[in-house]
Amino acid sequence: MAGITIYEFDALVAAASGVPDVGGQRVVPPGVFEWLELQTLRAAEAGASAWLRLTQRRGRRAVQVTSFVGVIRSPDGFQIEVLPKVGKANGEGDAQARQLLIEMLRCLGGFRHVQTDSAKLVATRMPLLEVFIGEFLLAVEHIVKQGLRSDYAARRDNVFALHGKLQIATHLRQNLCRRDRFFAEFDEFSTNRPENRLLHAALRRALAWTASQANQQLARELCFVFADVPESEQPAVDFSIVRLDRGMGHYADALAWARLILGDASPLTGAGGHRAPSLLFPMEAVFEAYVAKHLARQLAHPFTLKTQARSYSLVTHLGQDWFRLKPDLLVQESSANRLVLDTKWKLLDDKKATGTDKYGLDQGDFYQLYAYGQSYLDGQGDVVLIYPQTDAFEEALPVFGFPKSSGLRLWVLPFCLDKRALILPPCGSLDALFVGNGLQSE
Questions:
Q1: What is the pLDDT of residue 299?
Q2: Where are the extended beta strands (E) located within 360-429?
Q3: Percent composition of the chain: helix, strand, coil (DSSP 3-state, to 5)
Q4: Each residue's pLDDT tens digit, 175-186
Q5: How far, in Å, are 93, 390, 400 from residue 88 at the CA level?
Q6: What is the pLDDT at residue 404?
Q7: Phi, psi dihedrals of residue 267, rounded to the nearest 5°
Q8: Which residue in 235, 275, 297, 361 has a CA-CA distance of 20 to 30 Å to 397?
Q9: 351-374 b/e with 16+ CB inside 10 Å = b?
Q10: CA–CA separation, 106 vs 119, rounded Å?
Q11: What's the Cα-to-Cα distance from 224 to each of 248, 252, 255, 414, rounded to whole Å?
């Protein structure tokens, strides 16, 4: 199956005969490019998240991916794999960037079912969509080995032997001249339950998507096991009546994948229906979840980490709180706030401190952290902006002070994605909140 691998904010142009490809541009078939343009316009009209935007490259129309990563699949099956930009910035290559993304996705709510160990084995040689499909198939295979669960379901049918309740009106209407039949309503113990219908539908879709011979073979074998189970015709309805009660716990991972594959829980699905799914994840949310999970382990006792605090508002108006102040992370000691942190998925350059560059920092983020510090810390203490560590941003920046607030300091710190740790400032100002000093930059 045709496809390409790109990174966040790369631009795509349509292949054109007689027009040379310019270095740095990624080329897709004309039909795929037209479909991408249409998705961009539809998303703009619907006010949806801008996962694509229109632009130009050397006088040619282009579409640019934004800070969403994952898989875009056009209606004709062409796949565009979008990887985190840190892979390009550090020169790590596709395999390392893909492996890092899979590890980070495990921290995103609802995707903890990604089995990192097995995923790492195939991530170096498989695109993301194949990794996702492979993980789903392994989860379904685990269910099959334990046996499909059956349940009692109400059924109405014309049967040869009477059991259950005879439906007299329908029976007389259909069997007036057929004394060997009984139209009855009865309970049947069957594998035809919503959980199995959903898995069968997801298996069929995965089989249509995958280009991997191993995935195709396993998908066909599993479809054969589900042959007596009808495919779910209304996944949203079936998901609403799923019951993971006693004895059904082993279904959880496979159903989580089925939600993604069937589009019911996809973070972003491109317009165009099920024929053209786009399984994309906002990197800001992925990075925030990744930092939150590992930063909690880095804290010293008795400090705890709270996510998405929303205790204060910027203003009050007519007795109502307006503009909630919601820092990404809040370090607390008992009920006392000790440190406010916000994650930013942006690449900084510590060599560009002068002029208008200012390391690549955003003035609006400083206003935001100042408001957090005033509300959550009463203007006394430390606030932190966390960015991904790269070759151009390896150590904490010198501390920032607020002239009108001598008691509030702002730190800009890198988070090492490989070591899964926040790099602390060398002065030791934040050491008391974290475990040991070994996490400082070397």
A1: 94
A2: 381-388, 400-402, 405-416, 421-422
A3: 35, 25, 40
A4: 767 766 877 776
A5: 7, 10, 29
A6: 72
A7: -60, -30
A8: 297
A9: eeeeeeeebebeeebbebbbbbbb
A10: 11
A11: 21, 21, 18, 50
DSSP 8-state code for residue 390: B
Q: Closest by alpha carbon to 255, among 267, 241, 268, 269?
A: 241
Tell me what pLDDT residue 309 has: 81
pLDDT value of residue 216: 95
180 backbone φψ class: left, alpha, beta (φ>0; ψ -120 to 50)? alpha
CA distance 198 to 252: 12
CB 28 within 8 A of CB 5: no
DSSP string, 180-227: T-EEEEEEEEES-SHHHHHHHHHHHHHHHH---HHHHHHHHHHHHHTT
Asked if 202 and 224 touch (Cβ cutoff 8 Å), the reply is no
How much is the pLDDT for 424? 94
